[in-house]
């Protein structure tokens, strides 16, 4: 355990951030999975929302640029 006050604060902040990032990443992965498994019209509706989620996760620094670009390319091929 840290003895320095600022390090204790950093540990608390990291824990909060870790939970937030994990929930966003899990939601993103599940929406990608559902997008690939669905058919027809549902894909067209969900495509836009999944692309938005990918861009938002990238701008927040949760996913990398390559992960975002790779998934956007796969979605556009559908």
N- to C-terminal distance: 50 Å
Rg (C-alpha, Å): 17 Å
Shape descriptor reads elongated
User: Treating each run of at least 4 consecutive H or I residues as one helix, how many helices?
Assistant: 3
What letter string, H or E per element, gives the SSE order? HHH
> Which stretches are low in confidence, meaning pLDDT under 50 for 5 or more residues running?
none
**What class, by secondary structure content?**
mainly alpha
What does this molecule look like?
Helices cover 83% and strands 0% of the residues. It has 78 residues and is mostly helical. It has a domain at 40-78. The longest helix has 33 residues, at 5-37. The model has no long low-confidence stretch (mean pLDDT 88).
Quick overview of this protein structure:
The chain is built from 3 helices and no strands. With 78 residues, the chain is mostly helical.
Write the layout of secondary structure elements.
Blueprint: H1 5-37, H2 41-59, H3 65-77
Helix pairs in contact: 1-2, 2-3
């Amino acid at each position: 355990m840290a003895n320095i006050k600022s390090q204790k604060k950093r540990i608390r902040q990291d824990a909060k951030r870790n939970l937030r990032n994990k929930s966003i990443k899990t939601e993103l992965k599940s929406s990608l999975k559902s997008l690939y498994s669905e058919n027809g019209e549902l894909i067209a509706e969900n495509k836009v929302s999944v692309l938005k989620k990918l861009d938002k996760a990238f701008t927040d620094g949760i996913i990398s640029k390559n992960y975002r670009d790779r998934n956007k390319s796969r979605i556009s091929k559908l």
